[in-house]
Amino acid sequence: MHVYHDQLEVRSRGKGLYEITDDVQSKIDKCSIRNGTVTVFVQHTSCSIVIMENADPTARRDLEEFFERLVPERTSYFTHDAEGSDDMPSHIRMVLTRTSETVPIADGKMQLGTWQGIFLFEHRGAPHRRKLFLAIIGE
Amino acid sequence: MHVYHDQLEVRSRGKGLYEITDDVQSKIDKCSIRNGTVTVFVQHTSCSIVIMENADPTARRDLEEFFERLVPERTSYFTHDAEGSDDMPSHIRMVLTRTSETVPIADGKMQLGTWQGIFLFEHRGAPHRRKLFLAIIGE
Amino acid sequence: MHVYHDQLEVRSRGKGLYEITDDVQSKIDKCSIRNGTVTVFVQHTSCSIVIMENADPTARRDLEEFFERLVPERTSYFTHDAEGSDDMPSHIRMVLTRTSETVPIADGKMQLGTWQGIFLFEHRGAPHRRKLFLAIIGE
Asked: Cβ–Cβ of C102/A134 closer than 8 Å?
């Protein structure tokens, strides 16, 4: 049994879903762990990690539109807006989704279903460099 | 320290919450790990794994009704509807909840609170066979 | 590789976010594990564990207000109200957030980003004693 740590940087180009499945699998391929779990953890509070349908881009666009409407910019009662109108919505959208995903690994491969992809979900309007910390535990 | 992998299939009869607490505990009972964690991971993007109140069925019905209203079928701006009007809502409801739950194990038992149960939350209207992958890590 | 279990009790004073980052780190400091993960798991279905912005209190107040409006007390179709008007909203707010967070540990420290804190998110109006179970796995 071992622990293997690694990091990933994802450059977002503003709001939306950015698939990172292959980047995570590449990190697993680099280490000797064949069976266990990987925890993909994002070190920010204005973007999320989610597992989502990865085949049809229209599903991602509908998801983004849903979150735009559920937590609108310029909501009248928001007071935390030091970084702009997308500041508070980005924190709420993160709390409504996830800071990390933990995925089982068997025979060196993440055990994702056929249509599952891992995504960075960027909630800020401007491009950002996002830091992810990976903890792979197993044997 | 060891890793133990197992799988579960849950047959849903359409939308709703299906308790799987005993099924997960049975898998833990089968392996030699007494202390650690179990990650219950669902390999689909149109259903979820959630921990929820397991005593009163009315709580589950109110939860289901809330999600019906929060992410309604036939939402006018949804474009991803290849599999029907419950297609896009099922993905959004999954993103708003969870793909996996990780539960501590002590003395061979999941350390759930008195009223906590683990549920498959089916978001599609038709019956489905859902595949779950379990990763148990510990000693 | 080892597993270390511990428990925390958090006394809430009604609805709101209570930071527990230092309490969790103190438990990690007590054990010999330097690299791995900690799973912070709350043993209740009417409060949550979330990672959230920990610098500006206005961000937390806006978040609390958002959840008050998204899942209002006295929603007409709720039937599960044995414990009062905050009963059903508390379960739904928990399902929309998280029962646990898993955070990587490196060199004995949780690898949180600069602005990330771990919070108990209390959804009930009255003060409660909340039990948390911590599973630290690593080497």
From this structure: no
